[in-house]
Amino acid sequence: MAATVHILGSGTPTPAPDRFGSSFAVDVDGDLLLVDCGPATTWKLAKAGLKTTDVNTIFFTHHHFDHNVDYPCFLLTRWDQGGARAEPLHALGPSPTSLITERLIGSEGAFRSDIEARMNFPGSRAIHVHRGGTLPRTPPEVRTSDIEPGYVHTGATWTMRTGLGRHVQPWLDSIAYRLETADGSIVFTGDTEPCDEIRELAAGADVMLAMCWNTEEAQPNHRDGLCTLEGAVRMAADASVGTLVLVHCGAHVAAPGVADAAIAAMGEVYQGRVVLADELMRIELSQNRVTAKS
Ligand SMILES: [Zn+2]
User: Fold this and answer.
1) How many domains does the chain have?
2) For residue 65, how far is its CA from the centre of ligand 1 (angstroms)?
3) What is the DSSP string of 25-84?
4) C or N: which end of the chain has fewer Cβ atoms within 10 Å?
């Protein structure tokens, strides 16, 4: 039994050579989940040695593009590589998760012509059969659930609880997640400002992946709907979180030494461990012990 978080995206909407957007894959006792699907998630899954076809459940925190823009690529790749696999994907997230899915791959969806071509062109059908698929080829099957804070999803050996994130409402809804496993609990704040709902959801968690887009010193006047490094550290302290993993990191806070200095300055506030997440880092939980591996 073990739970491993693969950091696929630890950046922001601004592309950088080493980080871009948000996405995390979580292997819980062999069940592979995705939390968000930001830029190049499908490619980063491959870089992490993971298969799109092994992901059966995806959770969205909210529908900003840095958290969902690779969703069509992921859906189509999973379907195309799937061959004989029959299990449909389940996509969950705040509204409009269902509408976005329908507009991508539904009968009037943006990618429907590609899907029809792959279902009908003889060469594409032959490749599908070669991958273990059968004919006639069927379109991608995705079950969707638009969920609200408080929703609980139960997996084989895990439970995903949800709470409210305070980000850019009312334009987009935001959901924070708490994954309970036999080896410990992992919170994904999504994009949010520090708030009581996250403190409550994260209470006593072994790990919290929190957005940290900058230091307060570098960005004193733009904090609405967002969390700074200091805000994330204070929330981790308030919630008695064991390990704080900083994600959604902007270029300034991710520059060498900047986060280390800011974390050191918060040493009196929080005695837990703080990790600045690099892409393809793994956070491993085994019997509530947390290890970060590059
Ligand atoms: Zn956002």
Assistant:
1) 1
2) 8
3) EEEETTEEEEE---TTHHHHHHHTT--GGGEEEEE-S---HHHHTTHHHHHHHHHHH-TT
4) C
